[in-house]
């Protein structure tokens, strides 16, 4: 069994295994496989030589790459006159410092003096912002409006700016705690966020990624940490999943919260390429399954199941939620209906199957998401019963059991309520 040197990693693993065991309703074989993978990781040689004991490989980010990633610096370019006159570099911006002789000035404060202390400064500000605002807005752009604009824009920049620390890192991770927390407790959002309450709950199928030997996780961090249900990992300023192809190339999927690279990975410590139409995975996938027979494999960015070989993935421009039902047929869209968070589920006595599936009122069978409908009284009915034992009311369109439907003189079947209403109208 793989033993982590850091007790936090040991604790994370045990918490995740406990959560998945108690709440995610994997079938016994799949749950045993999931536990086995977390305890005995089987990692491809494209990744394994790089990893430390915690199953992560860390690389210090170089300045040119950091500059490229800093959205605050990108937005700061609006102040082109200020940047040009004082030769502001990214290093100045990051430190918020500008050396002038023996004195040091704070850039975010100095910029007010530059633009607001003279008519020339106000004119320069109007010129700088002209490409981004309407001419009507600039016409009455005097000192109060200029100050308000600078305050608002600099606040936005401060919110986007990467922190002024020297240990920004790129991390390649095979540590499943990072995968599990890939979108939770971040300033940005995705369907993998355990705090999201979208009715598809894509996060319910994250455990299925563990068995994909093609997959790795890559993130950029400022070293800050986050916690959810006592799982403790670093925060992700940017992150993506990686997929290994049959030529041992490492392919990047979609970046969150935004893609600043556009396939240009110059300066990255790992050789990467964006996934494309030629993608063929190195490994087929023997999916984990839930107790109802559905596959457990989460939302895919830029891949989907191969129709000719469902254990393999192929490129898909947008991606989506694809799964295999209990008949091994490919279905698109989540087969979960729960509206809630993992915290909600964990603090209840229920499991995923309790809150995402209903039993057919007529036959008692569990109803899958795609087969769900309701009868005239609001009771859940499965597709088989609907087709074989129910008929649609001619007037209101509700489902009515054959023996409860009323046929009128024209041979039209109606529910009892519509039939009685029509009868009263004719009297």
Spell out the blueprint of helices and strands.
Blueprint lengths: L6 H17 L4 H12 L16 E5 L2 H7 L1 H6 L3 H7 L3 H6 L2 E3 L2 E3 L1 H10 L2 H11 L5 H5 L3 H18 L8 E5 L2 H5 L34 E7 L3 E4 L2 E4 L3 E7 L5 E3 L20 E2 L13 E2 L5 E2 L6 E4 L2 E7 L6 E3 L5 E3 L9 H5 L5 H5 L1 E2 L6 E2 L5 E2 L5 E2 L1 H7 E3 L6 E3 L4 E2 L5 E2 L1 H11 L1
Parallel strand pairs: 9-10
Antiparallel strand pairs: 1-4, 2-3, 4-5, 5-8, 6-7, 8-9, 11-12, 13-14, 15-16, 17-18, 19-20, 21-22, 23-24
Helix pairs in contact: 1-2, 7-10
Quick structural overview:
This protein is of the alpha+beta class and 427 residues long. The protein has helices spanning 7-23, 28-39, 63-69, 71-76, 80-86, 90-95, 107-116, 119-129, 135-139, 143-160, 176-180, 342-346, 352-356, 383-389, 416-426; strands at 56-60, 98-100, 103-105, 169-173, 215-221, 225-228, 231-234, 238-244, 250-252, 273-274, 288-289, 295-296, 303-306, 309-315, 322-324, 330-332, 358-359, 366-367, 373-374, 380-381, 390-392, 399-401, 406-407, 413-414.
How would you characterize the overall build of this protein?
The chain has helices at 7-23, 28-39, 63-69, 71-76, 80-86, 90-95, 107-116, 119-129, 135-139, 143-160, 176-180, 342-346, 352-356, 383-389, 416-426; strands spanning 56-60, 98-100, 103-105, 169-173, 215-221, 225-228, 231-234, 238-244, 250-252, 273-274, 288-289, 295-296, 303-306, 309-315, 322-324, 330-332, 358-359, 366-367, 373-374, 380-381, 390-392, 399-401, 406-407, 413-414. It is of the alpha+beta class and 427 residues long. The model has no long low-confidence stretch (mean pLDDT 88).
């Amino acid at each position: 069994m793989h033993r982590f040197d850091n007790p936090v990693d040991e604790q994370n693993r045990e918490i995740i295994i406990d959560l998945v065991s108690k709440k995610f309703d994997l079938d016994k074989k799949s749950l045993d496989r999931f536990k086995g993978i977390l305890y005995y990781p089987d990692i491809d040689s494209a990744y394994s030589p790089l990893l430390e004991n915690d199953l992560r490989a860390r690389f210090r980010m170089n300045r040119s790459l950091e500059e490229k990633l800093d959205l605050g610096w990108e937005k700061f370019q609006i102040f082109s006159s200020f940047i040009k006159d004082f030769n502001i570099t990214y290093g100045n911006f990051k430190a918020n410092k500008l050396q002038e002789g023996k004195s040091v000035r704070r850039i975010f404060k100095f910029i007010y003096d530059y633009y607001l202390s003279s008519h020339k400064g106000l004119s320069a500000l109007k010129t700088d912002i002209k490409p981004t605002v309407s001419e009507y807005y600039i016409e009455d752009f005097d000192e109060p409006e200029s100050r308000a604009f600078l305050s608002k824009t600099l606040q936005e920049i401060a919110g986007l700016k990467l922190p002024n620390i020297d240990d920004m890192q790129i991390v390649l991770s095979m540590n499943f705690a990072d995968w599990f927390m890939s979108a939770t407790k971040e300033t940005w959002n995705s369907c993998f966020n355990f705090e999201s309450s979208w009715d598809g709950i894509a996060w319910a199928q994250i455990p299925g990624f563990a068995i994909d030997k093609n997959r790795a996780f890559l993130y950029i961090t400022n070293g800050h940490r986050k916690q959810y249900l006592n799982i403790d990992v670093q925060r992700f300023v940017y992150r993506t999943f990686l997929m290994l192809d049959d030529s041992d190339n490492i392919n990047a999927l979609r970046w969150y919260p935004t893609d600043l690279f556009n396939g240009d990975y110059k300066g990255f410590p790992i050789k990467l390429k964006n996934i494309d139409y030629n993608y063929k995975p190195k490994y087929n996938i023997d999916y984990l399954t839930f107790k109802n027979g559905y596959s457990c494999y989460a939302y895919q960015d830029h891949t989907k199941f191969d129709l000719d070989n469902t254990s393999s993935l192929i490129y898909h421009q947008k991606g989506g939620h694809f799964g295999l039902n209990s008949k091994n047929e490919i279905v698109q869209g989540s087969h979960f209906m729960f509206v809630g968070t993992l915290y909600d589920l964990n603090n209840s006595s229920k499991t995923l199957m309790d809150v995402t599936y209903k039993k057919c009122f007529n036959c008692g069978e569990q109803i899958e998401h795609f087969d769900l409908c309701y009868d005239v009284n609001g009771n859940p009915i499965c597709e088989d019963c609907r087709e074989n034992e129910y008929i649609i009311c001619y007037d209101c369109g509700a489902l009515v059991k054959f023996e409860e439907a009323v046929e009128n003189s024209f041979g039209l079947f109606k529910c009892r309520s519509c039939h009685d209403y029509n009868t009263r109208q004719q009297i």
